[in-house]
Amino acid sequence: MIDLPFKGKWIASGAGATELTNHHDRIKSQKYAIDIVKFGEDNKLFKNNGLANEDSYTFGAEILSPVNGKVVHVTDSLPDKKITDRDKLAGNHIIIRFGDSLYVALALLQQYSIKVKPGDSVETGDFLGRVGNSGNTDFPHLHIHVQNTPVYDIETTRTYPLRFRKFKRRRVLFWREEENGFLLSNDMVRGE
Fold first, then answer.
1. Global model pTM greater than 0.90
2. If pLDDT is split at 50, 70 and 90, which confidence band does 49 have?
């Protein structure tokens, strides 16, 4: 289990363990990944026409460590635009080792926003960086998954089902306190 890596109100745009709820399902190295975007104070996902990165309330949103662990990999220099090179699909990203042999990957971060480096120890809630639009992406969002390797490789990395320790979730009509819960596409969540 991990904690939510953000504060505020967000919505999962891709989550779950099947192709019905998660577009990542077709890629073994991302099967259980979650894509998630942030709502603004006006309960919208973007301002203006939404075409510029800066129109998105997700772009520049703070990302916090979801675990106590050690940073094992950082990429921070890629531009905030769609990247199709296979070795750069994760864009700017951080990988943190936690537990005995698990790694959490937080990807598609903003260029030069990452404030940690390999070897740094982090605690749950520590500021890591900001959401960007780097990597294999069509709009600013946070991509998160738990994997078995210290570096992401589209061919060999394997992911695991992802559960969050304690959070508020809205599925259909009502907000509920959840513990040890998972997300599906269109779930709204609040990080406090």
1. yes
2. confident
Rounded Cα distance between 102 and 159, Å, is 10
Strands (E), 53-187: 62-64, 69-75, 92-98, 102-109, 121-122, 127-130, 142-147, 159-160, 164-171, 174-181
The DSSP symbol for 50 reads S
For strand 92-98 and strand 69-75, is the pairing parallel, antiparallel, or unpaired? antiparallel
Burial (CB < 10 A; 0-12, 13-18, 19+), residue 62, is: middle
Convert the pLDDT of each residue in 62-78 to its tens digit.
Answer: 999 999 999 999 999 99
For β-strands 174-181 and 164-171, DSSP reports them as antiparallel
β-strands 8-14, 174-181 pairing? unpaired
Tokens 């937080």 appear where? 106
2 pairs with which residues across the strands? 164
Tell me the C-alpha distance between 4 and 86, whole Å.
28
87: helix, coil or strand? helix
